[in-house]
Amino acid sequence: MAGKSKSLGTFDAGSIAPFFESKSLAVIGASTDPIKQGGRPVRYSVMSGYKGRVYPINPRADEVQGVKAYPSVGDVPGPVECAFIALPAPAVEGAVMDCAEKGVRAAIIISAGFGEVGAAGRRTQQRIADIGRDAGMRLVGPNCMGLMDVRRNFFPTFAPLFGFNGEERPGIGNISLVSQSGAFGAHAYEMARTRGAAFNKWVTTGNQCDTEISDFVAYLADDKDTEIIMIYFEGCRDPEKLKQAFRMARANGKPVVLLKAGRSETGVKAAVSHTGSMAGSDAAFDGFCRQFGIHRADTTSELMDIAIACSMRKYPSKPRVGLVSISGAAGALMADYAAEVGLDVPPLPRAAQKKLLKLFPFGSALNPIDPTALWGQDMSVLSASLEALIKDGGHDAVVLFGSTIGVNFINIERFKNHIFPVRKKYPKPLIVISMLGSPDLIADWKTEGFQIYEDPRRAIEVVAALAKLGPIARREARPPARPRVPRAFRITPERALSEAEAMDALEKAGLPFAPRGVATSRAGAQRLAAKMGFPAVLKIASRDILHKSDIGGVELGLASKREVGAAYDGILKKAKKAAPGAAIDGVLVAPQIGGGDETILGVSNDPGLGPVVMFGMGGIFVEVYKDVAFRVAPFSRAEAKAMIAEVTGHAILTGARGQAASDVDALADALHRLSLFAAANADTIASIDINPFMVLPKGKGKKGKGRKGRGAVGVDALIEPL
Fold first, then answer.
1. Do 563 and 673 belong together in one domain?
2. H helix intervals, 454-607
3. Count of structural domains within the chain
4. Residue 603 belongs to a domain with what CATH number?
5. Domain boundary among 473, 506, 531
6. Using an 8 Å Cβ cutoff, are 618 and 689 in contact?
7. Domain shared by 328 and 265, yes or no
8. By CB atoms within 10 Å of each CB, which of 107, 218, 418, 679 scores lowest?
């Protein structure tokens, strides 16, 4: 079991354990009708052989489905560890109070009509949460479908599981599901069942008035019977808890496969109205998933396929694949798919190619392997191809496209007689078959250790996902480090900062900026420009004018004192006309930085993740192509480098087309330091914009005190407070 009373960092496993490990369950609102929501937990407990005590609570019945009933939870003679509350919303608060007085350790509230429906519902939900907190009683819901621990025959849920239409009791698997949606959880359960898979634990969190997704991810990370964590996610209240939970899952070798609602504006609104969730930027959440090694699925089918594939415990050691196809076209398509998802398709060694070409001289023995139509006469060409990839090519992941072989009785028997022995001879590699076939046939092949998909693209996607999750499952990939956040980086802005003030604050955190000064006279601007060197840049200095270019408050490429003087006068005139009430500090003077690659650094305070750092290449890359990457703050320099490598335009930084390579180390250091600054000011800063941030050729920049990054410099900064 997940250790009782064991502290899990910011989590307490002992407080979550009663939801799965209780030896007594009170069903408040228990129904004599086993079909009703209050009747199903009683029926499941009786049918499944639950070893604990079940106490139906129903003031109008002496007995519920053959089990003695009680008027209230307070009337139960013994202790009650867990309660399942299936009452109309107006009666829930009183029931929660009764549970608190009884000393119940955990309560599941399935009733709807709380935080998801408006202000009055949110107030009632908060009172319920307060009652639980004051009593030391953990709550799941409201507006959920309950949970289950299949291994312990514990089913406090009204999900349609078994016992009504001849369905068998749920099987026991190594996947555990945490879903914010009850209906989605039920759908996922049925999808898994029809695919021949099973769950270990299953929980729906609903409105999350107390326990959240993160509480259960942390618990499951420490649960020896859970090997894969599947999640349906809408949003969270506590980003730090969520990060810590995913760190724990990764540290304990538990791959996480996740589906999130809220990609579109409409989806965000639906998620909020559904469970009252805080759903933030989808692009930021993508970066978060990459940062923590989470596989983010695009569809329910992908979520299920990847999680079930993980449950078979066959992870490739490298991101590469061997391909065999009875169709040259399908082989070419699979090679294309592999390239798209980052899988290498290396050719077979020459000796192995020669050996195969003796079997099919008019085919291709490279990789993909295409034995031509000869397979129709002699299926051994397919088994020989698989064996060549595994034995001679050293592949521990292979995909065979079999097309319609599975729907032809004669072909499938011959196919089986040749392919099953390969599986038996080589039990360790991942062997994926893409073919059509009946559910019974597919189940038969899965039982033998094959993974079967109709679509060859999905077969390739599964291999790629397993290759990425393998290091986590093998505990080779460490959780992302959480650097120490210096208190000295914290600022408390009571108003918007001017550009100069923003650059000063960021510079104290170690980010490099161009030399600068604020001039309050024409002559002062000319002296500063001459001292710093031409060409010069002049910008209006005012905390009230944040978007300077919009009012003509920026002049570039000023080559002389005369040009600087004229620009100074012109900028002040335009600023006073465009913003007559603005407080103007003067004009900022700086040298114009050239000869580098233009990038953009930014921070936004995401409602679901906290401070998120953005990086992108400048100009058309970010404006037109939206070529950006995100990470949740704070993060290490190594994570910053991974972030940089994600953007398509990063090749420019490495010296594309004979150009000098830029100082990526300096850029990574700046992103790391920006993440520390953002984390230090998570509750005071809404956004940060450093645009442009110039990355210079290696060794071209000046070494700054306390900075490792020498070849990068910011020339503009904007900080907006919360």
1. no
2. 456-473, 499-508, 522-532, 561-578
3. 4
4. 3.30.470.20
5. 473
6. no
7. no
8. 418
In a domain, 504, yes or no: no
Extract the residue ranges of the chain whose pLDDT is less than 50. 1-9, 266-279, 703-709
C-alpha to C-alpha distance for 492 and 220, rounded to whole angstroms: 39
* End position of a domain, from candidates 440, 473, 506: 473
Name residue 688's beta-bridge partners: 603, 719
Reduce the DSSP state of residue 492 to 3 states and report it: coil
Bridge-based pairing state of the strands 175-179 and 138-140: unpaired
User: Does residue 573 belong to any structural domain of this protein?
Assistant: yes
**DSSP string computed for 21-87:** H-SEEEEET--SSTTSTTTHHHHHHHHHT--SEEEEE-TT-SEETTEE-BSSGGG-SS---EEEE--
Same domain, 318 and 453: yes
> Residue 351 is part of which domain span?
314-473
Residues 266 and 351 in one domain: no
**Centroid of chain to Cα 50:** 35
Beta strands 67-68 and 63-64, pairing class: antiparallel
CA 343: distance to chain centroid? Answer: 21
Q: How far apart are CA 95 and CA 101, in angstroms?
A: 10
Examine residue 368 and say whether the peptide bond preceding it is cis (omega within 30 degrees of 0): yes
- Number of Cβ within 10 Å of residue 547's Cβ equals 8
- Give the residue from 34, 43, 42, 27 showing the smallest Cα distance to 76: 27
Whether residue 41 is contained in a domain is answered as yes
Q: Say if 487 falls within a structural domain.
A: no
Which CATH number goes with the domain that contains 344? Answer: 3.40.50.261
Distance CA 141, CA 128 (A): 10
Strand 147-149 and strand 138-140: the pairing is unpaired
Helix axes 561-578, 522-532, angle to 10 degrees: 130
pLDDT at 570: 96
Residue 349 structure tokens: 């060694």
pLDDT on residue 405: 94
Residues 249, 263, single domain; the answer is: yes
Question: How many Cα atoms are found within 13 Å in the side-chain-facing hemisphere of 593?
Answer: 26
Contact assessment for residue 719 and residue 497, using Cβ atoms and an 8 Å cutoff: yes
Q: Is the pTM of this model over 0.85?
A: yes
- Reduced 3-state DSSP string for 654-709: CCHHHCCCECHHHHHHHHHHHHHHHHHCCCCEEEEEEEEEEECECCCCCCCCCCCC
Residues 563 and 414 in one domain: no
Closest CA to 451 of 308, 352, 566, 342: 308
Q: Residue 16: phi, psi to the nearest 5?
A: -90, -30
